[in-house]
Amino acid sequence: MSDWWEDAACRGMGPELFVDALPHDQWREANFTAETRRRIEEAKQVCGDCPVVGPCRDDAIATNDFSAIRGNLTPVELRAYARARAAIRGERFTRYQPDRVVQNRRASRGVG
Ligand code: SF4
């Protein structure tokens, strides 16, 4: 992992707030419970004070990590951002790949 992670506001916080805030069956915003929304807001408050939001988003997209709150965006928001960015750049948007996501999110959070 490159140096940007050194300055992350969530460094040392573990995956609970950012990964577990989004249960697997609630990745679509229409299915979010009140508790899920509360936890998302809590995670986003941390991201809001983070100096490396841009690099965090770039890393999430580069590693296909659309399973957690990254760069102050939910997975749904991050996919929309990635799709729009790819369109502007004339690039192909890499679609969500669950197997890679699980590996990547655990690695990026220092889990497993
Ligand atoms: S933007 Fe949010 S998820 Fe990304 S490093 Fe900063 S605090 Fe962590």
Defining key terms:
112 residues; mainly alpha; 46% helix; globular
Explain what this protein looks like in three dimensions:
This protein is mainly α and 112 residues long. The protein has one domain (15-107). It has helices at 34-48, 53-62, 75-89, 98-108. It is globular, with a radius of gyration of 13 Å. It starts with 33 loop residues before the first helix and ends with a helix. 24% of the residues are buried. The site of iron/sulfur cluster (SF4) has 13 residues, from helix 1 and helix 2.
Element layout with pairings:
Blueprint: H1 34-48, H2 53-62, H3 75-89, H4 98-108
The protein binds iron/sulfur cluster (SF4).
The site of iron/sulfur cluster has 13 residues, from helix 1 and helix 2.
Residues in helix, %? 40-55%
Count of discrete structural domains: 1
| SSE topology string | HHHH
The total count of helices amounts to 4
Mean pLDDT metric: 80
Instruction: Write out the distinct hetero groups bound to the structure.
Output: iron/sulfur cluster
Given the helix and strand composition, which structural class is it? mainly alpha
According to DSSP, the number of beta strands is 0
What ranges have pLDDT less than 50 throughout 5 or more consecutive residues?
none
Main pleated sheet: none
Radius of gyration: 13 Å
